[in-house]
């Protein structure tokens, strides 16, 4: 494009009238006020706003330390730069001089250049050092204060739910129950595509990758339910791939753990319902009434365990192989549960 073309595209500044400038100042004030309002919302307390949840574990506390350090440094730089900008805008405004007047050209300011190179280097080095100090504590157990040996839970990410396998054979779906104040070690993998295990109040994000096991430690500092969400876009129902960790007092945990193991072994637990609610309801609805997947109510296939089993292990069209690799315990519990929808074509 030639010189003339460019000139035509450039804003015609000479036409800027005082009225326009007043309007621009108004807009600036408006944006600044909006920023203040949003900053207030952003800093509002848990669980609203942009401030991190928790921290409810020593690991999350260290992550939060890093978060606040970065906020402090970047916030400081922001205020400094924007403050200087606003100062200069007012200090060096044109005061009736011609708009085409050029400022003096300055060459070489070695000292200044060294300083503005050194400061970012120092800031970055400080951040790296801080992170390196905190990192070991994020990636490992905190056994000094933990009561008892760690609980090890296998976490399987699947389209579109989480399966938890405990050492004594107990299976849980979407909600993981753990003892408070005890170290928990998770072995995280995936049965299909990449997912990401993320309970912000307790730990950072950990990828769930097929064929690879990632390890994660946490220790819930208090009893309570800590919610999370799959942190990796994994397909149609990704937004419904939620998770929760429920931390209960150690003795409550132990009695539940033993009771649940017996109930699941004898087929009297609610594992079937839990599996349906976690693994099927996202698409078929809680009453199998259909939403993304077809309405299953009254479907004769629900009476044919072998057919459903094949379907769950292989998937079909848009239905993923949700039951691939399930233990017979989980498969049987689900098959027993879905039978209840076989006869109910109305209601739910
Ligand atoms: C990601 C969504 C999704 C999930 C999760 C899902 N389904 Fe499906 N399901 C579908 C879709 C879509 C179809 C239709 C498949 C087709 O096009 O053949 C289907 C079909 C079916 C059918 C066959 C109906 C027929 O008449 O052939 C059954 C039975 C079924 N699903 C049961 C389940 C069960 C049980 C679960 C949980 C263990 C489950 N589905 C999880 C989406 C899903
Ligand atoms: Cu996912």
Description:
β1 and β2 (161-165) form a beta hairpin. The chain folds into 2 domains: 50-87 and 111-266, Immunoglobulin-like; 271-341, Cytochrome Bc1 Complex, Chain D, domain 2, CATH 1.10.760. It has 8 helices and 10 strands. By secondary structure, the chain is α+β, with helices and mostly antiparallel strands. The relative contact order is 0.09. Heme C binds at residues 160, 236-237, 279-280, 282-284, 292-294, 296, 299, 301, 308, 311-312, 316-320, 322-323, 334, 338.
Notable characteristics:
single chain, 348 residues, alpha+beta, Immunoglobulin-like, Cytochrome Bc1 Complex, Chain D, domain 2, 5-stranded mixed beta sheet, 3-stranded mixed beta sheet, 8 helices, 15% strand, binds heme C, binds copper (II) ion
Give a short overview:
It contains 8 helices and 10 strands.
| Mean pLDDT over the full residue set | 87
Identify low-pLDDT runs.
1-13
CATH superfamily of the largest domain: Cupredoxins -  blue copper proteins
Name the hetero compounds present: heme C, copper (II) ion
Ends distance: 68 Å
């Amino acid at each position: 494009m030639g010189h003339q073309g460019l000139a035509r595209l450039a804003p015609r500044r000479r036409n800027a009238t005082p009225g326009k400038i007043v309007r621009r100042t108004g807009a600036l004030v408006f944006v600044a006020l909006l920023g203040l309002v949003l900053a207030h919302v952003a800093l509002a307390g848990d669980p609203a706003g942009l401030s991190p949840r928790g921290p409810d574990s020593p690991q999350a506390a260290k992550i939060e330390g890093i978060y606040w350090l970065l906020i402090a440094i970047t916030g400081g730089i922001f205020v400094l730069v924007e403050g200087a900008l606003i100062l200069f805008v007012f200090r060096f405004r044109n005061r009736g001089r011609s708009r085409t007047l050029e400022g003096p050209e300055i060459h070489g300011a070695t000292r200044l250049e060294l300083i503005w190179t050194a400061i970012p280097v120092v800031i970055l080095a400080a951040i790296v050092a801080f992170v390196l100090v905190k990192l070991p504590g994020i990636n490992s157990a905190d056994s000094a204060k933990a009561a008892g040996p760690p609980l090890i839970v296998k976490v399987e990410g699947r389209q579109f739910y989480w399966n938890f396998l405990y050492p004594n054979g107990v299976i849980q779906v979407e909600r993981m129950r753990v003892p408070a104040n005890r170290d928990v070690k998770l072995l995280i993998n995936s049965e299909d595509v990449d997912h990401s295990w993320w309970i912000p109040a307790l730990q950072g994000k950990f990828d769930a990758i097929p064929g690879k096991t990632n390890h994660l430690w946490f220790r819930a500092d208090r009893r309570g339910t800590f919610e999370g969400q799959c942190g990796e876009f994994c397909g149609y129902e990704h937004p419904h791939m939620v998770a929760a960790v429920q931390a209960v007092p150690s003795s409550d945990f132990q009695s539940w753990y033993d009771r649940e193991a017996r109930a699941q072994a004898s087929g009297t637990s609610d594992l079937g319902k839990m599996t349906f609610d976690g693994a099927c309801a996202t698409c078929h609805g809680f009453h199998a009434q259909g939403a993304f997947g077809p309405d299953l109510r009254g479907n004769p296939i629900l009476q044919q365990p072998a057919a459903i089993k094949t379907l769950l292990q292989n998937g079909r069209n848009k239905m993923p192989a949700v039951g691939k690799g399930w233990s017979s315990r989980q498969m049987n519990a689900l098959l027993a549960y879905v039978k209840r929808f076989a006869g109910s074509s109305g209601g739910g």
